[in-house]
Amino acid sequence: MKSKTIWMIIIFLLLVTVFTFFLGYIYTTESRVEFYAKVKEVRNNSHIINPYPNEAFDYEEINLIIPDKKYQVGDIIKIVTDGKVMETYPVTMHAINTKLIKKEKVEEITTTPIEEVSNEIIINEITGYIGKIKDIDLDQAKTYVIDIVDYIFNEKEILSTKFINLSNEAKLQVIKKALELDDAINKKFPNYKSDLATEYRSMKGKLVTFYLEKTSNFCENNDAICNDAKQAFLTLKDKLNLSWAFVTSIKEVSANELQKWYEIYQGK
User: What are the residues facing 65 on neighbouring strands?
Assistant: First the structure.
């Protein structure tokens, strides 16, 4: 009897320990903050950084403690912190993890908004739009669409950069993400573009055409991303149920161009 009681106590304590650990893990994970920044100054045991715009906080400058790692002035880094902020000047945060996104050789930078944004940051920003669809209203959804269409076609800036300045691979990624954004919004708000201007109502067709034109050009110029672009389109085609009839109805093109599009559509 005593043996059984002891085992029950041991099992109970183990369950309490596991449950406590689980709650601690959830709390730690949810309190983490991920953002991007540019290194302004390197000190003995910390880095002064200028964060890119971030919804989690609004600091122009942060004293970031990074254990056992040194970056250079001008480096663009991806940062994960524990979410805690020490009210020093500038505020102090501790990094859990960091990753070099882009290496720069810059002698000095100011605290004014940072002009240069890496391809990864832009892609993450638009991916973030998609992740927020379930929590936003119709007006915000329309704002996302207008912003992304203007970014791709009308030289609008997002995070101080323009579509034209992205790498070829990033351009296709942005077009792909824009189509996924449109699809996600349309599932939540069917026919949500009915009262928007024509260029936004025709967003899907314009983006599909643009993707095919870009991929066709890249493949014709033997760009290294040709095959990846074709494979990505196959995935996108299935995800969005893009029929060949829809593709051919978007705009009139020459027989030669149509043949190139068909090859991409088929993944050849």
Answer: 94
Structure tokens belonging to residue 206: 């314009």
Name the CA radius of gyration of the chain, rounded.
Answer: 24
Please tell me whether residue 229 adopts helix, strand or coil conformation. Answer: helix
**Overall residue count recorded for the chain in this entry:** 268
Query: Among 191, 176, 152, 185, which residue's Cα sits nearest to residue 237?
Result: 176
CATH architecture of 32-102: Beta Barrel (2.40)
> How far, in Å, CA of 121 to CA of 126, rounded?
9
Say if residues 220 and 179 touch (Cβ distance below 8 Å). Answer: no
Model confidence, pTM: 0.62
Domain boundaries, the chain: 32-102, 119-266
Considering only the C-alpha atoms of the chain, give the largest distance between any 2 of them, rounded to a whole number of Å: 88
Task: Report the SS3 class of residue 124.
Answer: helix
pLDDT digits (tens, 9 = 90+) for 3-62: 666 666 666 666 655 544 443 443 334 477 888 888 888 887 789 888 887 656 778 889
CA geometry: angle 202, 208, 210, nearest 5 deg: 95
* Side chain identity, residue 112: T
Using an 8 Å Cβ cutoff, are 76 and 36 in contact? Answer: yes
Peptide bond into 90 cis (omega under 30): yes
